[in-house]
Design brief:
Mean pLDDT: 83
Number of domains: 2
Helix content: 25-40%
Order of helices and strands: HHEEEEEHEEHHEHEHEHE
Largest sheet: 6 strands, mixed
Structural class: alpha/beta
Strand order of the largest sheet: 7-6-5-8-9-10
Low-confidence stretches: none
Strand content: 15-25%
Number of strands: 11
CATH topology of the largest domain: Rossmann fold
Amino acid sequence: MNLINQHSKLRRGSILVLSAVFMVFVLGMVAFTTDFGYMQVSKTRLRAAVDAAALAAIDELTNDEAAMNQAVTDLLSANGYDATSSDLVVTTEYGNWDIDTRVFTAGSVFITADAIRISVVDNGIPAFFGPVFGEDGYSAGAEAVATLASTVPRDIVVVIDCSTSMDANMSNGQTRMENTKGAATAMVDELLPEDRVGLAVFSWEDPLRNRYEKTGRPETPLDFDKTDTLDRIDDLEDGFYTSGTNVAGGLRAGLDVILNDLSPRLPPLPGESEAEQIIVLMTDGKTNKEEPYPVPDDGPTGVLPPPPYAKKPKPDKKVAVTKWSNTIKARGIKLHVITLGDSAYDSLMVNAASPDEGGTTYYHHVSNGGSDAENLLEVFRTIGIGNHGPKLVK
């Protein structure tokens, strides 16, 4: 009997020892899981802050280096990180991003930079149970690269409807023309120095035609200096030309700006991309006036013959829109079409625009409503930004 009692006591003692060892193991796993989980959350939080700082800094890349660095400090602070803390190591570099190799190269000349790399190491992540294992804290790092780099330079012709219907008010109390002028200006402001811009308008009464028939007219040539185009946009007024909407005339005038380039670009050097040609046509109505000029064929050779113009039957207004849009696209020119207001929505205009490609949409409809002015502005700005960002690339 005594032997049984002794064995039972020994077994109970062994269980207590095993339980104590198991509890230490469990507590160790809880400690590790807690600290590891918090460290992962800290890494995610730091990465989000660094991404936001990179996007804010890239917006200042066209200003100066001090503004860029201040943007980094402000965004890190807004996300709970003190850039002056000894626990935080912040490295901001500007340079260039190679879209083909996806490599960032730090540079020494701020004015030629098109990308920013921000690296942050946080050495102040607390350890809740780490001291038990000799760890007082942890470190986490994050890196982000943002760029404004455009894959190709662009030649953009803005074509604006100047018919009298543009004096109708939008939800913000301003006219369609006033909102269009502001949106087109915002688009031009988004262009990079290597981009060129020109302007054409419609509906304009052509004095060379019988009874001053309505069509379109080039206003400013393609130019790296955006001043003339911005000034001309600012001069446009509601109903600047006449009643009636001749969309085909606008397409022809936009193409004329490109074909009659006063200072053509030099051929691209080896490794450089050829400029992308873009026409952005905006109208607030359906095409209801015939284009008095002869229509082109559907191919890349379609051009307007020189005057004088013989009196010939006018082509069908819808056929003229299709023919001019087809010859624009056949030349490799991207054609954005923006329709403003519900009366402007038309399958003809949808088909006139270039087909969607690579995530880029070329037909944009802005419906009547409480956010129509904001939507119009966003459409123009998005086109202006194009491929050049700002965007995170790494």
